[in-house]
TrEMBL record:
<dbReference type="Pfam" id="PF13242">
    <property type="entry name" value="Hydrolase_like"/>
</dbReference>
<dbReference type="InterPro" id="IPR006357">
    <property type="entry name" value="HAD-SF_hydro_IIA"/>
</dbReference>
<dbReference type="InterPro" id="IPR023214">
    <property type="entry name" value="HAD_sf"/>
</dbReference>
<protein>
    <submittedName>
        <fullName>HAD superfamily hydrolase (TIGR01450 family)</fullName>
    </submittedName>
</protein>
<dbReference type="GO" id="GO:0005737">
    <property type="term" value="C:cytoplasm"/>
</dbReference>
<dbReference type="GO" id="GO:0016791">
    <property type="term" value="F:phosphatase activity"/>
</dbReference>
<keyword id="KW-0378">Hydrolase</keyword>
<dbReference type="InterPro" id="IPR036412">
    <property type="entry name" value="HAD-like_sf"/>
</dbReference>
<dbReference type="Pfam" id="PF13344">
    <property type="entry name" value="Hydrolase_6"/>
</dbReference>
Length: 291
């Protein structure tokens, strides 16, 4: 009977091996390193292991990298702001650089509003003035806000969205509604589909992470918890991906499980996976497990 490399133990060993071979790491934040107000088991050790060879790549659209760096330090994770790539900030920079004259109706946190002004975006609040609507995770989203956005879009403004995640994991198994949930309301009310979605699985964030690290895709591994954003985004760029958490393709419940040396490697000279397996093969095996 032939041996299939699909048991959890083998995948876990393969994932550990992929990380051991990785030169650089692009790591997701929510559900991978932190869950709301706490660091996830193993997060600090993983970042310490890759100390100057990782970047956090997150669909977060409420914080700035500066603000998030401070928040993470309180959770025991020391991450310099220049190694945090966020969908909200990146969307604002895209707008400021590629559409500097556009009048922007921005539905976002106060922090992202301040960041947009600092980047030179021309922010407007009236529906008749907007050329572009940028939708981020706006905690003060309301019926009034929805009405202004929907009518701006119906008048011809284009819809840019930081990320399309419906939720992210919160504490005690709860979910936190995300920008994608607000997007569903906007699309329902306006009949207008997004012109541009910046966050994963689109390639912009991973490309920016690679650029900041001076990293090569072939020696970079993505670690995340969501097959639809982290997994799909990595696959589109040919990056290896290791998933943790609750999803079907996950190799361990938390990143702590990625740091454990596989027993087979220590005691058996011929483990079921081959040590020469490339990280992309690891990813394919994970994909097989999902499908
Ligand atoms: Mg996540």
């Amino acid at each position: 009977m032939s041996t299939h490399h699909t048991t959890t133990g083998t995948l876990n060993a393969g994932a550990v091996h992929a990380l051991a071979q990785a030169r650089h790491l692009l790591v997701d934040l929510d559900g991978t390193l932190v869950r709301q107000q706490e660091a996830i088991d193993g997060a600090a050790r993983l970042l310490a292991h890759f100390h100057d060879r990782y970047a956090i790549v997150s669909n977060n659209s409420t914080h700035t990298a500066q603000g998030l760096s401070v928040r993470l330090r309180k959770l025991g994770l020391r991450v310099p702001p220049e190694r945090i790539v966020l969908a909200g900030e990146l969307a604002v920079r895209q707008l400021a650089q590629q559409h500097p004259q556009a009048r922007v109706l921005l539905a976002a946190s106060a922090a992202l509003q301040r960041y947009a002004r600092a980047q030179g975006c021309r922010l407007v609040s009236a529906e008749a003035e907007a050329d572009i609507v940028l939708l981020a995770l706006d905690m003060h989203f309301s019926h009034t806000r929805l009405s202004v956005i929907a009518n701006a879009l119906r008048r011809g403004a284009r819809l840019m969205v930081t990320n399309a995640d419906a939720t992210h994991p919160g504490p005690h198994g709860r979910v936190v509604p995300e920008t994608g949930a607000l997007l569903a309301a906007v699309v329902a009310a306006s009949g207008v589909q997004p012109w541009c979605v910046v966050g994963k699985p689109a390639p912009l964030l991973f490309e920016e992470g690679l650029r900041r690290l001076g990293a090569h895709a072939g020696r970079t591994v993505v670690v995340g918890d969501n097959p639809l954003t982290d997994g799909e985004g990595a696959a589109r760029l040919g990056l290896a991906c290791v998933l943790v958490g609750e999803s079907p393709g996950a190799v361990a419940p938390t990143v702590a499980g990625l740091l454990v040396q596989p027993v087979s490697e220590a005691v058996e000279p011929a483990p079921q996976y081959r040590l020469s397996d490339s990280t992309s093969k690891v990813w394919r095996s994970v994909r097989t497990e999902v499908s």
